[in-house]
Sequence to fold (250 residues):
Amino acid sequence: MKPVPRISTRGYYDLKTGKTLKRNNYYLYPKKDFQKLIDSKELTIMIHGLRNDNAGAIAKAVLARNRLRKLGYSHPVIGFSYDSNTTGAHLIKHAKHALAVGQSIAKKNGRNLGKFIEDFKESSPKTKIRLMGHSLGSQVILSTIEYLAKKKQNSGILESVYFFGASITEDVPSSKKYGKLLQTVVNKKILNHYAPSDEVLSWADDKKYVLGPLGLNGAIGKPIKKYHQKLVKPKNHRFASYAAVLNTFP
Fold:
């Protein structure tokens, strides 16, 4: 199988502090493959979680593509690769700091991914764009929506959004701040796959590193109309486990 094209911001942010190192929007790899995506009926972008280096990001995009192919989805699937392999993320004593840096970098990447979506829609206005985010990837998506919501013409620019093991908080779909943005920017639906059995989200919740992750018990309050959730039972927090229990798409 040929490589999965990807949008990348690797090396744009400091892995120890989250500081912005480069102001570029993004780079595309392989560039010629993105030319071929123009005028596609639709495409799906997979956004990985914390502790993924470039190889990890590629692996997640391949996983997503293979799973969606099995489910009969024949449109292009591409990856978004960002600096999520923050320093010390694999060591318990540094976990809190590494996660905080990861969250800060994920938030900043909202502008990068948002820019790509605007640029791509400009050259290919009829292409429907769907986003899939695993774990910290949910924060990248939320920040992308925040960025896109700043312009009226971006209303409905995203076709749909899919969360897996989301680390954003459970009040997001019903909050005054984000609810309206999600309702406006996303055309069809936001689908959250949540798992009360997810050991990583459970740990992050217990430690109060993430207060009530959306991926653990689903949304609280009265979520917006376009928000839906699905209880799933993945083996563990890894994206491979969530992909394995995904049974319909889009």
The helical segments are 31-37, 54-70, 95-123, 137-148, 176-185, 199-206, 214-217, 239-245. The first helix runs from residue 31 to 37. The chain has one domain: 6-245. The chain has a mean pLDDT of 96.
